[in-house]
Design a protein that fits this description.
Number of domains: 1
Organism: Rhodopseudomonas palustris (strain HaA2)
Distance between the termini: 63 Å
Number of strands: 11
Keywords: Transferase
Protein name: 3-oxoacid CoA-transferase, subunit A
Oligomer: single chain
CATH class: Alpha Beta
Shape: globular
Radius of gyration: 19 Å
Number of helices: 7
CATH superfamily: Glutaconate Coenzyme A-transferase
GO molecular function: succinyl-CoA:3-oxo-acid CoA-transferase activity
EC number: 2.8.3.5
Length: about 240
């Protein structure tokens, strides 16, 4: 089975449909599948439910899909870096399901492991628990959270081989490995594509069995969400 595709558009061909659920890896702008998310925007697919820790920042990543109003609902844990995200939500133009970050990660992991639901103390007594089952264990209250399983997952890896085995680099690993397991189809974009067998099995983070399609994108642009610098007295004096 050939998993390698020449570009993002061809890798997405035959998969997309309106109203589908898509998982998008990354944390902030670190480890986002930017090439694939841009191809989603260009495809025109709409009414999407997107599972992602956040939606990037204005003008970068998933935010471009918000600009074109292709996202109907976000399942996220953080929206603070994206003004457009906040504007659309406050205007009632975007549905939002908030999940504490650890709970979101566990919901994705559970979906990939075939676990339909689990109980956690996180969120009990808050808005997060509204409308959800509460159960008591050993004198403590827990809220039931549902596992998440998507139609499509898009992930970014530092290295991959033609069999779909993936290696993530440092903190760019974040949500990518668990999302790769929690979808009917996973498409990976990799910076370096090598022949099957070239990656040491002990170094593989995502086994190729979870990856159906793969593209090579070269060295990804490393965006900075907020550039913070210390003021220099000599600079202020000139």
């Amino acid at each position: 089975m050939n998993k390698v595709y020449p570009d993002a558009q061809s890798a997405l061909a035959g998969i997309l449909r309106d109203g589908m659920m898509i998982m998008s890896g990354g944390f902030g702008l670190c480890g986002i599948a930017e090439t694939l998310s841009d191809a989603l925007r260009d495809s025109g697919v709409k009414d999407l439910t997107v599972v992602s820790n956040n939606a990037g920042v204005d003008g970068i990543g998933l935010s471009r899909l918000l600009e074109t109003r292709q996202i109907k609902k976000m399942i996220s844990s953080y929206v603070g870096e994206n003004k457009l995200f906040a504007q659309q939500f406050l205007a009632g133009e975007l549905e939002l399901e908030f999940a504490p970050q650890g709970t979101l990660a566990e919901r994705i992991r559970a979906g990939g492991a075939g676990i339909p639901a689990f109980f956690t103390k996180t969120g009990v007594g808050t808005l997060v628990a509204e409308g959800k089952e509460i159960r008591e264990f050993d004198g403590e209250k827990y809220v039931m959270e549902r596992g998440l399983f998507a139609d499509l997952a898009i992930v970014h890896a530092w290295k991959g081989d033609t069999a779909g085995n993936l290696v993530y680099r440092k903190t760019a690993r974040n949500f990518n490995p668990m999302m790769a397991t929690a979808a009917k189809i996973t498409i990976a974009e990799v910076e370096h594509l090598v022949p099957a067998g070239e990656i040491d099995p002990d170094h593989i983070h995502t086994p190729g069995i979870f990856v159906q399609r793969i593209i090579e994108v070269g060295s990804a642009k490393k965006h900075i969400e907020q550039r913070t610098t210390r003021k220099r007295p000599e600079a202020a004096a000139t």
